[in-house]
């Protein structure tokens, strides 16, 4: 038996981050800068709220998307004060999910 997340969760992520479904999906879920120290600026309040909403959706979906769990966990640790790099990592992961949207 194979379990897939409902497509509405994918579409919500794409809409939150303004990712077009016509873009080419990334090949891997994790960004290359994920393990480096983050010294980038914090996001503004509106963008930080969008970040938190998207990470919440990812956490809900994470039990079905095992390959995304490491990156989702990293992003969840950034929820208190999300940064520009965390935003880039989030967009990278969601672009990876373009290929998973079924």
What do these coordinates show?
With 102 residues, this protein is mainly alpha-helical. It has a domain at 41-102. 49% of the residues lie in helices and 0% in strands. It has four helices and no strands. It has helices spanning 7-16, 45-61, 69-77, 84-97. The mean pLDDT is 90.
In short:
With 102 residues, this protein is mainly alpha-helical. Helices cover 49% and strands 0% of the residues. 24% of the residues are buried.
Cα(first) to Cα(last) distance is 16 Å
Helices, by number, come to 4
Low-confidence stretches at least 5 residues in length (pLDDT < 50)? none
Which structural class do you get from the secondary structure elements? mainly alpha
Round the Cα radius of gyration to an integer and report it.
13 Å
- State mean pLDDT (0 to 100 scale): 90
> How many beta-strand runs?
0
Largest sheet: none
* Helix residue percentage: 40-55%
What is the string of SSEs from the N terminus onward? Answer: HHHH
Overall shape: globular
β-strand amount: under 5%
